[in-house]
Amino acid sequence: MRSAIVDLGSNSVRLVVFEGRERNPVMIFNEKATLRLGSGLDTSKRLNPKGVALAEDVFKRFYAVATTMGADPFVVLATAAVRDATDGPEFINKLNQWMPNVPIHILTGEEEADYAAAGVLCSIPNADGVVADIGGGSMELVQLCGQQRFNAQTLPLGVIRLMDRSERKVSKAKSIVTKDLKTVEWLDEVKKKNLYLVGGAFRAMAQLYMEYTSYPLSIVHYFTLPYDEAKRMVEWTIEKSKGGLNNNMPTFIHKRLNDLPYAATVLGQLLARMRPEKIIFCAEGVREGWYMRNVVSQSARSQDPQESAARDISERLGRVKEFPLALMQWTSSLFKDESVTMKRLRWNACLISDSGCHDHPAYRKEESYRRILCMAGMAFDHPTRAFLALTTAMRYEAGVEEEFLSSAKKILTHKQFEQAVILGMAFRVAYTLSGNLPSLLLRTRLKVGKKKLTLYFSHHLDAVISDAVTRRLSRLGQLMGLETQLLPDHEDEPKALKAPKASKKQ
């Protein structure tokens, strides 16, 4: 089952086709065309004629692709440029001819903010703070708290419009932004909260700064900076834009070069007004918000996005669907005073622990690591990606000093890195011991004591306690600073499998 949305903005128009009705959007087609329909709108009050002239071929192509793919529902959402232009209705009439029988919705500023907020909540359901969605013609602000949306407001601060209003003078743009933000009185109520940044200009700024700082992961979604570092990024972007950027930048950033100082100016004034604890870049916005509200069922919406994504990996790539549950039970004593966050990580790691089983053995550890670290889904923040990828690599016999693990070392704290290694090594013992058979694994149990790590086994399982099991158990004990021992277990009957309690959406 497929669905499609055309996001008609002031700078670009994009077609996205989603496949399925799952909790986490799966894009199978994503194409953008830059029309800059909002260029000059502030003075002419009309859509950019050059963009209008290019639009017919673009929309006819999008229509052919989406209808041939059988997308249903299939809609067009138009935003600030069409909303504000005097010839907006005339352009909509053309769209109806180019895309017959496709519903076209001109979003109000509040509706646009609402969809953007729903998009952020799609992958970050515990978001608490303010969403700022910058486009070409407008910027939408909306407050998020407790999975609810409040105080939606739109401002004429899209990068194209701000460029026009300031006559391409960044210093003048700063005063315009400051004045416009003063009209948003509720911003004073959300000081120190997080700021979630949506929109192509913000994403381009993040990508540029990630390259400048040699950040170890080229995924903008969930890229997070504390307040002071965010300020440095804004200052660096504006200063760098003055002198021009080198030609080695990605193509999509070159297309945004003129926009970057204005996006940075908007962000700088938001930082000054809110002083957020941190900023979080989000690649999910209006399109994903529409998907969540119009395609996904209410029951699917209530699922935890991380667990849903991990279950999908398990179902697609794992071999025995009951094994993750057995593994979760078997590793339950591994971490003393385990936090809710750590338990959630462990469960997701159990779910994906067999994801490299179909890879070639010579490349399995690295392939499984990169698969999880760089997966296309939006559910995982960067530390979670790194933790799960490292755990999976260790399960497939990676060494902690291997070069390809360097990204995990840079992203994770020392404690997180250590926990991921220990969990992965425990998985290695479990799979060696059981051959991926839940009933066999649960005839054994792992117990972590003050000084010893003990593997208990049923008396009739002597034959499965091989040299490989003993060696790997010993290695796990060394990592944990514990002696190891194997002992017969008087509990011959395995405990019944119990699913972990559903975690609250994070």
From TrEMBL:
InterPro entries in alphabetical order: ATPase_NBD, GppA/Ppx_hydrolase, Ppx_C, Ppx_GppA_N
Gene Ontology MF terms in the entry: pyrophosphatase activity
SUPFAM superfamilies per the UniProt record, alphabetical: Actin-like ATPase domain
Domain Ppx/GppA phosphatase N-terminal: 16-293
Any Pfam family hit: Ppx_C
Domain Exopolyphosphatase C-terminal: 324-485
Official protein name in the record: Exopolyphosphatase
Organism annotation: Commensalibacter intestini
